[in-house]
Design brief:
The protein starts with a helix and ends with a helix. With 226 residues, the chain is of the alpha+beta class. α1 packs antiparallel against α2, α1 packs across α3 and α1 crosses α6. Strands 1, 2, 3, 4, 5, 6 and 7 form a 7-stranded antiparallel sheet that branches. It folds into 2 domains: 145 residues, 2-Layer Sandwich (Glycoprotein, Type 4 Pilin); 73 residues, 2-Layer Sandwich (Dna Ligase, domain 1), CATH 3.30.1490. The protein has 6 helices and 7 strands; from the N terminus they run ααβββαβββααβα.
Amino acid sequence: MANAGQCAFCFEVLVAHFEGRSPAPLSVFTKAIEADSSSSSLESTTSALSSTFSAAAAVSASTSTFPLFVTWNTIGKNGTRLRGCIGTFEPQPLEKGLANYANIAAFDDTRFSPISLKELPSLECGVSLLTHFEDADDALDWEFGTHGIRISFSVSSRRYSATYLPDVPPEHFVSKEQTLESLVRKAGYTGSKNWSELQIKLVRYQSSKAEIGYLGFLSLKKRIAV
């Protein structure tokens, strides 16, 4: 499952980029978290999956692969603001996948300018490990606030696709219908058809998510002395 050590590793990757060096390995961060039952002191939060979450997700990070997303947020006086979020549905070895997408989400999310060194103190990092993918019976066959959704559809031989992670719909929308309408537009569709008029194929999934702020990363980094 996702943990604050993985988020701290993403911060380490980002800091190492700015310092022109190789990052410390994921293992030193995850081992420190595993050994520290009071990881909440690092400003971390880990979401609980439903009781159907596979026990296989708890195996060692050195042998696990997951579809994953890395999210960068900016924390300010007016709350939390998205700063970058990119991931993949192709299962990734955790260390390689987190390192790749920590950088991609920070520097290559075309919705935002690249993250700068001076922004580090205001950042929060989230890691989402995706699991339990299921083909839905229809576009409304998912639970609001529980499932992430990935849609795909075709119009005039052009294929469209987009996704929202599980925490996005309840944070930004009030219904499944509103979520789907937004997701259709996110996919790039600008036509006049409503989501209900499109032949949408929907895949639902769940995630384990953890978050940590920059101060939490510094605290952990200092404690493990790497």
